[in-house]
Automatic annotation (TrEMBL):
Helix-turn-helix domain sequence ranges: 15-63
Top-rank taxon, per record: Bacteria
Organism of provenance: Mediterraneibacter butyricigenes
Protein name: Helix-turn-helix domain-containing protein
Pfam families: HTH_17
GO MF assignments: DNA binding
Amino acid sequence: MTEHTQNTIQTKKALTVNEASEYTGIGRNNLRKLITWQKIPVIRIGNKILIRSEVLDQFLKKNEGHNLKNKYEVIAV
């Protein structure tokens, strides 16, 4: 990821799943599972999924030390 791309992602209010993956370090497939499990709220525009960056920050704080691959351990935002 280039510095310009990283700066652009950090200033956006809503991110695609790919951008959210880069922003958080959580893999795309794991993010999609968390969305399916309704642990992360999203905005849907047709097939496009957007996640607010502030929601991702809250999610990471609440789930620090939790196993994100275990549906029952993850705290929803």
